[in-house]
C-alpha cells in the first residue's frame, strides 16, 4: 500500500485530498497546526476507509517545524509515494498595510515550505524510481495581485522546472491551479466574497478528483473547471501591461 503526505490536511482542498487519497487506498500522513483537528480527521479516515494514518503537528512558517516534515519525507525506511503541498493562507490587507513579519510568514508557508518539502520528497522518490508531487498553486499566479500572486507564480514555475528535472526518473511533479473554491480560505482571511458570481466557484472534491486524474496522466499543469481553463488561456495571451492595469484598479487607494 502506498503512502501520501498532505499539508494543510484539516480543511478545504487539503481535506479533500486526504479523503480521496484514503478512498483510493493510500495510507495518509496528515500535516497541519491544530492537533485536535488532525486527530479528528485521522480518526475519520481510519474508520471510513480502513487505512493507516499518521499525524504531524507543524507550523510551516517555522523553519524548524518545516524541517521535521522534510525529515519524514526523506526517510528511506518509511517511503512517501505522493506529496501534496497544499498548506496556505492569505492576508486581507494590501502589502504595504501589513507588517512585514506577517508577509514573511505567508511567504514561508506558500513558497519556502513548497521548496523545502519538494526537495526532500523528490530526492527520496528519485532514488526509489517512483513517486508524485502535487504543489497547490493558483490561477492568481497569472495576475499581479500582490505577494500572494507572486508566490503562486513561483510555485507554478518551480513545479514546471522540477518536472523537467525529474523527467525519466519515474517521479512526476504537478502544479494544481484552482480558482475560487468553496473552502474556509476566504473566511479565515476575513475576505467578503459575496459578490462573486456562483459560476466562478469550484467544488473542492471535484477539483481534487480531476487533479489526481491529471497526476495519473503525468500532467504538469492541472487547471480545474472550464471557466478557469479559459481564464488561464486568456491570461497567457494578454499583454502584461493590460494585466497590470487591472491590478492598479484593484489596488487603488480607497477613501
Notes on the protein architecture:
The protein has 255 residues and is an alpha/beta fold. It has a single domain, classed as 3-Layer(aba) Sandwich (Rossmann fold), CATH 3.40.50.720. Helices cover 51% and strands 13% of the residues. It has helices at residues 12-23, 35-49, 63-74, 100-128, 146-166, 185-188, 204-216, 226-237, 240-250; strands at 3-7, 27-32, 53-57, 82-85, 131-136, 171-176, 221-222. Strands 3-2-1-4-5-6-7 form a 7-stranded parallel beta sheet, with helices on both faces. It is globular and about 50 Å long. 38% of the residues are buried. The model is unreliable at 249-255 (pLDDT under 50).
Draw up the topology in text.
Blueprint: E1 3-7, H1 12-23, E2 27-32, H2 35-49, E3 53-57, H3 63-74, E4 82-85, H4 100-128, E5 131-136, H5 146-166, E6 171-176, H6 185-188, H7 204-216, E7 221-222, H8 226-237, H9 240-250
Parallel strand pairs: 1-2, 1-4, 2-3, 4-5, 5-6, 6-7
Helix pairs in contact: 1-2, 1-7, 3-4, 4-5
